[in-house]
Amino acid sequence: MYNEIDLHNLDFRLALSIFKRKYNEALKRKDKREILIIHGYGANKLGHIPILATNLRIFLSKNKDKLSYRLSINPGVTYVTPISRLD
């Protein structure tokens, strides 16, 4: 079973803050299960670019030393496996 974080329809800064807090809380509990992040696939978008999904995945790719992630068949979801604390 996954941990789950629903960031649907949130501003990127708020979504990132919530994600980091819950991610770090899971690590503190020594819970390294994969986290299912629900970010939606584009309701909050600029033109045709989904802002939250795109920015979240950019953040994840810049932190590959602290986590691993994989995309889903569902474009509104990303899976993250915690490795070490995020600042």
Automatic annotation (TrEMBL):
PROSITE patterns: SMR. It comes from the Bacteria. It holds the Pfam family Smr. Gene3D superfamilies: 3.30.1370.110. Residues 5-83 form the Smr domain. This is Smr domain-containing protein.
